[in-house]
Amino acid sequence: MLKSAMNCEVITLGHSPDADDAFMFYALSQKKIPLANYVFKETITDIETLNNLALQEKLDLTALSIHAYCRVADRYLLMNCGASMGEGYGPRLVAKQKFEKKEMVQKKIAVPGLHTSALLCLCLYFGKRAEELDLFVCPFDQVFWAVENGYADIGLIIHEGQISYVKHGLVLCEDLGRWWREKTGLPLPLGGNALRRSLGRDKCRELQSLVKRSIEWALENRGEALAYARKYSRGVDWPLIDEFVGMYVNARTLDYGVEGKQAIEEFIAQAKALGMVDKGITVEFVE
């Protein structure tokens, strides 16, 4: 047993402490599926921290924002599975009162990080770069607090906050996923999983297969995986956890598909046009 353990390869794995990531990685982290010759060392932290760890190439396999992927595409391959895509829904702009778009662009907006896809989508929505907006940057789980306590007029909400904001007495000003769908006809690409290129193509394919099997296992054993994901729900009621996981872990999560990949290309193309990412960036997937 010791010899086998010593022969295993440790893979550093990063994902966020929210219900959909916990659901996806449950079978992997709890050894519900065969893990071949790998041992996974988890880092569970907010998405912006994961984005920054990827920028430093600190993780072998990590969840990250599609926006952040643009900055590490030379060092990471995007996996075909693990996508978080908004199918006509996505990050939401909420406030104590209803604001129109022409009003919001002049307000202070609390955002969950400068490398998040939510921030990039916000910039595309206004047609302005981040430095042209009045932003209050804070961890994603403090955005409600920032609005409630007057540090920002509007909050850009991600994760389960997208469906729990009403409990905070806030109103919806805009759903950026709906806006994107109306604008492009495509789902909104928010998050993905990526693997360090230096692992080598063969190893990347093996690891991708394990993650895909973990997602499949969770979908096949939904109740057990949901019970585990509930630990990362920050007090959100069970029906909302179920709803949120269903929004972001589905058939698209198993494979981007043609439309999903088109959505990423369009998202990045518009980011390039706005000057938010390097024009030389190309997206490359694990084969």
UniProtKB/TrEMBL annotation:
This protein's encoding gene: mqnD
Pfam families given in the database record: VitK2_biosynth (PF02621)
The protein's name in its UniProt record: 1,4-dihydroxy-6-naphtoate synthase
Catalytic activity, reaction form: cyclic dehypoxanthinylfutalosinate = 1,4-dihydroxy-6-naphthoate + dihydroxyacetone
Matching InterPro entries: Menaquinone_biosynth, MqnD
Alphabetical UniProt keywords: Lyase, Menaquinone biosynthesis
Family per similarity comment: Belongs to the MqnA/MqnD family. MqnD subfamily.
Function noted in UniProt: Catalyzes the conversion of cyclic dehypoxanthine futalosine (cyclic DHFL) into 1,4-dihydroxy-6-naphthoate, a step in the biosynthesis of menaquinone (MK, vitamin K2).
EC code(s) of this entry: 4.1.99.29
Enzyme class, spelled out: lyase
Active-site residues, record numbering mapped to chain: H159
CDD domains linked to this entry: PBP2_Af1704
